[in-house]
Amino acid sequence: MQSEVITIRTGSRPVVRDITREAEQFLSGRGDGLLHVFVPHATAGLAIIETGAGSDDDLLTALDELLPTDDRWRHRHGSPGHGRDHVLPAFLPPYATLPVLAGRLALGTWQSICLVDPNGDNPTRQVRFSFLPG
Predict the structure, then answer these.
(1) CATH 3.30.470.20: does it fit domain 2-133?
(2) Disulfide engineering: 115 pairs with which of 2, 10, 17, 92, CB 3.0-4.6 Å?
(3) Which residue ranges make up each domain of the chain?
Protein backbone atom coordinates (compact mmCIF):
# COMPACT_ATOMS: atom_id res chain seq x y z
CA MET A 1 0.00 0.00 0.00
CA GLN A 2 1.22 3.50 -0.84
CA SER A 3 -0.04 6.49 1.11
CA GLU A 4 0.29 10.26 1.19
CA VAL A 5 -1.18 13.06 3.31
CA ILE A 6 -2.02 16.42 1.77
CA THR A 7 -3.13 19.63 3.44
CA ILE A 8 -6.13 21.52 2.07
CA ARG A 9 -6.95 25.10 3.01
CA THR A 10 -10.71 25.32 3.53
CA GLY A 11 -10.94 28.79 5.06
CA SER A 12 -13.33 30.22 7.60
CA ARG A 13 -16.68 29.44 5.91
CA PRO A 14 -18.44 26.16 5.10
CA VAL A 15 -17.05 24.75 1.88
CA VAL A 16 -17.32 21.89 -0.58
CA ARG A 17 -13.80 21.60 -2.00
CA ASP A 18 -13.14 19.43 -5.07
CA ILE A 19 -10.02 17.33 -4.43
CA THR A 20 -10.25 15.14 -7.54
CA ARG A 21 -7.18 16.75 -9.14
CA GLU A 22 -5.09 16.07 -6.03
CA ALA A 23 -6.27 12.44 -6.03
CA GLU A 24 -5.37 12.07 -9.72
CA GLN A 25 -1.90 13.50 -9.07
CA PHE A 26 -1.39 10.97 -6.28
CA LEU A 27 -2.45 8.14 -8.63
CA SER A 28 -0.17 9.19 -11.51
CA GLY A 29 1.83 6.21 -12.78
CA ARG A 30 -0.02 3.60 -10.75
CA GLY A 31 -1.98 0.68 -12.20
CA ASP A 32 -5.27 -0.96 -11.29
CA GLY A 33 -6.49 -0.98 -7.70
CA LEU A 34 -8.43 1.04 -5.19
CA LEU A 35 -7.99 4.58 -3.93
CA HIS A 36 -9.00 5.05 -0.32
CA VAL A 37 -9.51 8.67 0.76
CA PHE A 38 -9.69 9.48 4.48
CA VAL A 39 -10.23 12.77 6.32
CA PRO A 40 -8.91 12.42 9.91
CA HIS A 41 -11.16 15.11 11.36
CA ALA A 42 -14.29 14.91 13.55
CA THR A 43 -16.03 17.75 11.71
CA ALA A 44 -15.49 17.05 8.00
CA GLY A 45 -16.62 14.46 5.50
CA LEU A 46 -16.34 13.36 1.89
CA ALA A 47 -18.92 13.36 -0.88
CA ILE A 48 -18.83 12.07 -4.45
CA ILE A 49 -20.92 14.68 -6.27
CA GLU A 50 -21.09 16.94 -9.30
CA THR A 51 -19.48 20.34 -8.78
CA GLY A 52 -19.62 23.63 -10.64
CA ALA A 53 -23.31 23.43 -11.57
CA GLY A 54 -24.65 24.43 -8.16
CA SER A 55 -24.69 20.99 -6.54
CA ASP A 56 -21.91 21.96 -4.15
CA ASP A 57 -23.91 24.97 -2.90
CA ASP A 58 -27.06 22.81 -2.81
CA LEU A 59 -25.24 20.34 -0.58
CA LEU A 60 -24.30 23.09 1.88
CA THR A 61 -27.90 24.35 1.85
CA ALA A 62 -29.23 20.85 2.48
CA LEU A 63 -26.81 20.40 5.39
CA ASP A 64 -27.94 23.73 6.87
CA GLU A 65 -31.57 22.58 6.65
CA LEU A 66 -30.87 19.10 8.00
CA LEU A 67 -28.32 20.19 10.63
CA PRO A 68 -29.01 23.84 11.53
CA THR A 69 -26.37 25.97 13.23
CA ASP A 70 -28.48 26.88 16.24
CA ASP A 71 -28.34 26.21 19.98
CA ARG A 72 -29.99 22.76 19.94
CA TRP A 73 -26.65 20.92 20.11
CA ARG A 74 -25.23 19.63 23.38
CA HIS A 75 -21.70 19.85 22.03
CA ARG A 76 -21.09 23.57 22.63
CA HIS A 77 -17.45 24.57 22.21
CA GLY A 78 -16.36 26.64 19.20
CA SER A 79 -18.60 28.78 17.02
CA PRO A 80 -22.35 28.95 17.68
CA GLY A 81 -23.96 25.77 16.33
CA HIS A 82 -20.60 23.98 16.08
CA GLY A 83 -22.16 20.87 17.59
CA ARG A 84 -23.78 20.15 14.23
CA ASP A 85 -20.31 19.93 12.66
CA HIS A 86 -19.57 16.98 14.95
CA VAL A 87 -22.71 15.20 13.70
CA LEU A 88 -21.81 15.71 10.01
CA PRO A 89 -19.63 12.57 9.63
CA ALA A 90 -22.67 10.41 10.44
CA PHE A 91 -24.24 11.77 7.22
CA LEU A 92 -21.12 12.36 5.10
CA PRO A 93 -18.52 9.78 6.12
CA PRO A 94 -14.87 10.80 6.45
CA TYR A 95 -13.82 8.16 3.92
CA ALA A 96 -14.43 6.93 0.38
CA THR A 97 -13.02 4.03 -1.63
CA LEU A 98 -12.92 4.34 -5.40
CA PRO A 99 -11.85 2.07 -8.28
CA VAL A 100 -8.68 2.90 -10.19
CA LEU A 101 -8.10 1.54 -13.70
CA ALA A 102 -4.73 1.97 -15.39
CA GLY A 103 -3.81 4.70 -12.90
CA ARG A 104 -7.00 6.72 -13.45
CA LEU A 105 -10.02 7.18 -11.23
CA ALA A 106 -13.05 5.30 -12.56
CA LEU A 107 -15.52 8.08 -11.72
CA GLY A 108 -18.72 8.82 -13.60
CA THR A 109 -18.83 11.70 -16.07
CA TRP A 110 -19.97 14.33 -13.57
CA GLN A 111 -18.57 12.86 -10.36
CA SER A 112 -15.88 14.54 -8.26
CA ILE A 113 -14.32 13.72 -4.90
CA CYS A 114 -15.18 16.56 -2.53
CA LEU A 115 -14.04 17.47 0.95
CA VAL A 116 -17.03 18.88 2.84
CA ASP A 117 -16.01 21.16 5.67
CA PRO A 118 -18.73 23.14 7.47
CA ASN A 119 -16.39 24.08 10.34
CA GLY A 120 -14.94 27.57 9.94
CA ASP A 121 -13.02 27.19 13.21
CA ASN A 122 -10.38 25.02 11.47
CA PRO A 123 -9.12 26.65 8.25
CA THR A 124 -6.90 23.72 7.15
CA ARG A 125 -7.61 20.02 6.79
CA GLN A 126 -5.58 16.94 6.08
CA VAL A 127 -6.59 14.28 3.60
CA ARG A 128 -4.91 10.88 3.35
CA PHE A 129 -4.79 9.12 -0.02
CA SER A 130 -3.95 5.39 0.06
CA PHE A 131 -3.53 3.24 -3.04
CA LEU A 132 -4.17 -0.47 -2.75
CA PRO A 133 -2.91 -2.26 -5.88
CA GLY A 134 -5.32 -4.74 -7.47
Answers:
(1) no
(2) 17
(3) 2-133
